[in-house]
Amino acid sequence: MAFRKKIYRALDELQADLDKWLAEYNNQRTHQEKMCCGRTPMATLHDEKQLWREKDLNQI
After folding, report:
1. Which of these, 6, 31, 50, 58, has the minimum number of CB atoms within 10 Å of its CB?
2. Number of helices (H), then strands (E), in the chain
3. Number of other residues whose CB lies within 10 A of the CB of residue 1
């Protein structure tokens, strides 16, 4: 929907807007999905990676 509001004349324009949208979506906007629990997707990823590391260390 966001990308229907503007006519892009060059791929670079579209890429710049897409990069901006992805950065906001993944790093600023909180999510209510089951795994995110109100965190951003990147915060969820970093937290889960730490848990995976701890779990792997405990299995050795």
Report:
1. 58
2. 2, 0
3. 4
